[in-house]
Amino acid sequence: MPVPDQRDPALTREILGRWLEGRSPGAVVEHLETPSASGFSAETLIFRAGGADYVAKVAPTGHQIFPEPRFEEQYRVLRELRRRGLPVPEVFWYEPDPSLLGAPFFVMAACPGRAPSDMPTYHQEGWVTEVSPRERASLWDNGLRAMASVHAQPVAGLEYVDQTSYGPTGLEQRLNYYEHYLHWAYEGKVPVAEEALAWLRANRPEESGPPSLLWGDSRIGNLLFVDGEVSAILDWEMVTLGQPEEDLAWYRYLDRHHYTAVGLPPLEGFPAREQTIARYEELLGRPMENLRYYEVLSGLKFAVVMARIGQLFVEYELVPPDDAFPHTNTATSLLATVLEEL
């Protein structure tokens, strides 16, 4: 979701150039793009220096979407997963000093490839609508394979992503976190989110498996593809520990949102729910448990994120203060449907 860009491109290029000189002597910032609108979760700067293309991610400040951005953790996770051979962007430098660009930032290599679009959704228009059903099925499966490679990672060395201040690893922690997040996100009430939270607390299953590394924002729109193969796994703001079912549910839930929100059936080639679950069981080598529960959890998470985005829309005067968007939107509509299906 975009926020208005208020950064001076010429000044930013000058500051970034001076900073880069101290880390890569002789490298000159030849070109810099500050997109006309930038995301809520982090600001993105795209630049070219020394014949190479880079992306700088700047930590959010007044427009942050999560209660704790955990910005340095993302840098650490990317470095570690890259070291382990996963297809994540190569990260070079982390700068904690907020005086340069107004907030800490890190710089990584620009990755080749293209991602399925969120706005408009890839079920509606864009390159995904133009490829064959067979190619779409392959994109989906390659995304599942990429997610499985994350779940296969040893947790040792990545324990710092566990948000233990909200409780023990797993569902208790997640519910405590999203209850806190919901009340922090929006000044008003989101009735369907409160209903979902109560249901999740009343029906919480036991999690029998050991914790895995979770990507968090596990969706096909956070993957870059080159010739149908995954070239990069992006966006680690929601990284944590838990059960792989949580990532799988989010992967499906966001896809379901992206076609139901625009009143369309899913594009031909994207597998049905049961096929996706069976395929992931094959990839992980074990049954997927309590998927309905994790789908309701996905609905709660997305409704909370959209409530926060709605609050920021109000603060940026993109919608009037009494606008219904924070509590009545496509995310809350789908969550209501999912609760009715129980």
TrEMBL record:
Highest taxon of source: Bacteria
Domain Aminoglycoside phosphotransferase: 36-270
Gene3D superfamilies: 3.90.1200.10, Phosphorylase Kinase, domain 1
InterPro entries registered for this protein in UniProt: ACAD10_11_N, AGP_Transferase, Aminoglycoside_PTrfase, Kinase-like_dom_sf
The protein's name: Phosphotransferase family protein
